[in-house]
Amino acid sequence: MEKLIPMRAAVFGFVLALAMAGPVIAAAQVGVFISPSGEPFWPTAAAPDGFDAWFARVAGKDGRIDRAAFRADATQFFHHLDADGDGVIDGFEIAAYEKSVAAVLDIDGQGFASRRGDTIKASSLLDDPEPVSSADTALNSHITLAEWLAAADHRFDILDDKHRGWLDHDGLRAKLPDWARKP
Q: What is the mean pLDDT of residues 62-73?
């Protein structure tokens, strides 16, 4: 029971932050970017393009993302999702993530949503409707860091289709849906 209170507080804080981001998104008329690990990057006044915000956070000084930086970013989000700090993203933590991001994910398994009107458009570099759950290779609702990093490596390999060992801004932007690319 003691573990549940901090986890509930963390989940409540995460959901509250997402709810507060809604007006900013509606005002910006742009979509949310879902990172390869599933982390949402909501547009803000300071960072109106979620893809650019994610890339700037992960890329090195050379303007590239190598495997080590990609894994470090994935590890950071793993620890964010592991609300109780036990080293495993469990079913409750997966459910909390999916509920908080469900407004932009296509939970019917059809890939990321591209909704018009008052709802939020979402873009991603990969067509993975459940980027957190898909890391659960043991299918036991317990994602270990080893599973998470194996998923990150697999995602990096998909994105690095030229096998260069690094990802660049323009090459990744070209993988976004047409509506999410800058003119």
A: 98
| Sequence-separated (6 or more) residues with CB below 8 Å from residue 161 | none
Max CA-CA distance within the chain? 52
Per-residue pLDDT tens over the stretch 144-176: 999 999 999 999 999 999 999 999 999 999 999
CA distance 74 to 37: 6
The letter for the amino acid at 175 is: K
CA distance 134 to 156: 15
Residue 5, token pair as written in the block: 């209170």
Residue bearing tokens 């986890």: 7
- pLDDT tens-place string over residues 102-116: 555 543 334 444 444
Closest residue by Cα to residue 135 from 175, 176, 173, 90:
90
Give CA–CA dist 45/47, Å, rounded: 6
| Start-end of H helices in the chain | 4-28, 50-58, 67-81, 91-101, 145-159, 169-173
CB burial readout 82-121, b (16+ within 10 A) else e: bbbeeebbbebbbebbeebbebbbbeeeeebbeeeeeebb
